[in-house]
Give the backbone structure.
Amino acid sequence: MIKVSHLTKNYGNHVAVDDISLDIKPGKIYGFLGPNGAGKSTTMNIITGYLAPTSGEVLIDGHDIYKEPEEAKACIGYLPEIPPLYVDMKVSEYLKFVCELKKVKKEDRDKEVERVMNLTKVSDVSNRIINNLSKGYRQRVGMAQALIGSPKVIILDEPTVGLDPNQIKEVRDLIKSLAGDHTVILSSHILSEISETCSHVFIIDKGKIIANNAIETLSNYFNSKQVLEIVAKGDMDKCKEIIEAIEDIESVSVEKGAEEGTVNITVTATYSKDVREDVSLALSSEKISIFEMKEDTKSLEDVFLELTAKEEE
């Protein structure tokens, strides 16, 4: 659906986007992550045709965004971080205007406006001036304009900014419902939003793509070993000796716990076997009480921080 080849954007001596290539398949939801200044927004603006690259090529459904701009842009619905609203217009009036810009047939415009208002739950404010709406409602009107014409590609930059928790859930559910019929690229600083909504993630730092994986694949890679955090009551050396004797244990570290007589134990094991039961039985057989045991798994936030820290190094 989208093919980006050797995309570069320079601002004088500063390289904002550094030789990026991406293949974006139809019908999936992609998350686009990066620290501030990483080149994320620049890349999205180039893909939508808002900015011209220094070099490289962007194809949208086979159309070059710069050689065939009308055909390519007809495939895109775009919600920038600041929604492109005419605040002196009524909601329904503005959406009809967007229908005209997107060349929706005149006889279909009322029906299309009603469809996107229902999807984004702004029907109850259809006759209100946009300037008098809350930030949350303005964001949803921005979502509505991106969906007009049912474009093949939906690009959303921080779509839940300014929404309350209930509205955030509604928008996330809406985005997930778009998969299949639309290809969605979602940019967000809320990493939990990406992990809950997207199936694939791109992480960009210093203008380069440093991760391009399905979220599950990325998570499995960074959680290739089982790590247990245990709080137990017993002798430090004895605890370490008992656990080290268990098969598939790679390492054990112990330190004095916060409460008197307790120890904090970190156990690392291969994932060939879940060792939680073996560890529990081994300690309890030696009358060592376990106060707490939890499996430490890396979230998308942990992965993001680790990857961008490596890039810094």
Q: What stands out?
A: The chain has a mean pLDDT of 87. The two ends are 35 Å apart (CA to CA).
